[in-house]
Amino acid sequence: MKIGILALQGGFEAHAGMLARLNQTPFLVKKQKDMEGIHGLILPGGESSTNIKLMDESLQKEIAAFYSKGYPFLATCAGLILLAKNITNSEQFRFGFLDIEVKRNAYGNQRESFSEDIFIEPLGKPDFHCVFIRAPKIEKTSEKVAVLAQIKDNIIFVKENNILAASFHPELTQDTRIHQMFLNMCEEKKMYTL
Amino acid sequence: MQIGTLEIKVGLAEMLKGGVIMDVTNAEQAKIAQDAGAAAVMALERVPADIRKEGGVARMADVNKIMEIRKAVSIPVMAKVRIGHFVEAQILEHIGVDFIDESEVLTPADDKNHINKHDFKVPFVCGARDLGEALRRIGEGAAMIRTKGEAGSGNIVEAVRHIRLVISQIKKLTVAGQEELMSISKELGAPYSLVEWVAKHGTLPVPNFAAGGVATPADAALMMQLGAQAVFVGSGIFKSQDPSKRAAAIVQATTHYKDPEVLARVSTGLLEPMKGLDVAALPEKEQMQTRGW
After folding, report:
1. Distance from CA of A147 to the nearest CA of B (A)
2. What are the C-alpha distances in Å from B268 to residues A14, A58, B56, B217, B218?
3. Which in A184, B181, B224, B286 has the greatest CB count within 10 A?
4. What is the 3 state secondary structure string of chain B?
5. pLDDT at B276 (0 to 100)
6. Main-chain dihedrals φ then ψ at residue A90, nearest 5 degrees
7. What domains can be seen in chain A, in order of their start residue?
8. Residue-wise pLDDT tens digits, A15-46
9. In angstroms, rounded to a whole number, what is the distance separating the alpha carbons of residues B14 and A48?
10. Chain B nearest CA to A19, separation (Å)
């Protein structure tokens, strides 16, 4: 399998480390041609506004086509903002594949960044160590979106069709379960595409 | 719930990788930086080139100035404190700065001790000229290391020297025998546990960025190819004749640092870069990199 990681700016190295731990070779995606032959795409954290500036039109179109063909996405933090349909506090570009409303930096500055161990039902026990870095908040989701985890009233992990999206950073931990869940989606897609 | 742990501090440094952090002195410059694609801004009273020119004691920026810059952008805001000046750091932490640079660009407040960065919830970045210095700062709690280079010089030679030295010292450690590590630790003046960690992993335990002398897109790409994971640009942008265009070009060059096609394109048609200094001709007491230890 060939898994791509958008590597314009942000936490792409940590995702690459996670894939390596799962015996996958990561492929860094910076341009349209880097998308060739991949079976799934990770959109890392970082600054969403920076990522948009760095994404040229051809790559943008390629990612949209990739989505339309039903290939899986794993989006974390800023990656989730790139996919969201609505952003309450920004006019910036977004793909809009994910029917949610998000607010950027909703918890505050780095001072308010935190971690917490959360039970995520599809993963079972033990709890997942969730690291939130200047994280966005998912403020609304449509009925098409499955909520996989929340902290009190805050939704932090969702799935809609071929998209898995978290407002935290599984790649900053040693816990491979969320990446494995994503790889399973890629494996399944690859099987049906053959 | 946990806050201010090393994991959370290093987490933000991880998110800045592949990005450019730009020095800005007001809200207007901060907006230009963000629009050009900066991953963060460094709020300052004066850029290093002006500090060098004007002389006198350089201190933490006025709180109003930092707040004005913070209001103008959505990306993280960093600010500098003097080496050893933990009260300036307490102030920056209180007002909610995202990252603190304990920086040799400002006039040191303590000639022996750096700040105990473990005392803070906010992450710190510190400059280093070699592996020993990098590990001493990490031992004190730094969540990010950057080369010192020679700030405000517009000359990349010192940053190149520092990153090459750090990387080659790391490489040597990975082939050293266990029995050699204590003597290397003594030579480097670095904590043994961190020397052992680097020998085992072949990398620093925190992100390693470039700073001090970046003036062109090619400079940024050079530092990335030498092993830096992101780039700070100080005077290089707003002391050039085309800040906005140059900033965007350096952002592109940092992302596509191995792609000559992109590098050639973004290096085309820029106006004059900052003039720059011959660092070799600079007396040691005028160098900023020799501040701190």
Report:
1. 21
2. 33, 21, 38, 10, 11
3. B224
4. CEECCHHHHHHHHHHCCCCEEEEECCHHHHHHHHHHCCCEEEECCCCHHHHHHHCCCCCCCCHHHHHHHHHHCCCCEEEEEECCCHHHHHHHHHHCCCEEEEECCCCCCCCCCCCCHHHCCCCEEEEECCHHHHHHHHHCCCCEEEECCCCCCCCCHHHHHHHHHHHHHHHHHHHCCHHHHHHHHHHHCCCHHHHHHHHHHCCCCCCEEECCCCCCHHHHHHHHHCCCCCEEECHHHHCCCCHHHHHHHHHHHHHCCCCHHHHHHHCCCCCCCCCCCCHHHCCHHHCCCCCCC
5. 86
6. -160, 150
7. 3-193 (3.40.50.880)
8. 999 999 999 999 999 999 999 999 999 999 99
9. 14
10. 16
Q: Residue B168 to residues A85, A108, B143, B190: CA-CA distances in angstroms?
A: 47, 39, 21, 16
Distance CA B135, CA A182 (A): 36
Give the pLDDT confidence score for residue A99 in this predicted structure.
Answer: 98
Kindly report the CA angle at B19 between B18 and B24, in degrees rounded to 5?
160
Contact yes or no for A113 and B39 at CB 8 A: no
In this prediction the ipTM stands at: 0.96
Q: Are strands B40-43 and B77-82 parallel, antiparallel or unpaired?
A: parallel
* CA–CA gap between residue A82 and residue B133 (Å, rounded): 39
Across the interface, of B3, B39, B259, the residue whose CB is closest to A46 is: B39
Residue numbers in B near A30 (CB within 8 A): 255-256, 259
Catalytic-residue membership of B258: no
Measure in Å the smallest separation between the Cα of B191 and chain A Cα atoms.
25
CA-based nearest residue in chain A for residue B18: A9
Distance CA B233, CA B215 (A): 7
Which residue out of B9, B65, B80, B239 is catalytically annotated?
Answer: B80
Determine what percent of chain B is predicted with pLDDT higher than 90.
90
Q: Is the peptide bond before A126 cis (omega within 30 degrees of 0)?
A: yes
pLDDT in tens, A66-121: 999 999 999 999 999 999 999 998 999 999 999 999 999 999 999 999 999 999 99
Catalytic residue among A15, A39, A62, A171, which?
A171
A103: helix, coil or strand? Answer: strand
- CA nearest B33 in A: which residue? A50
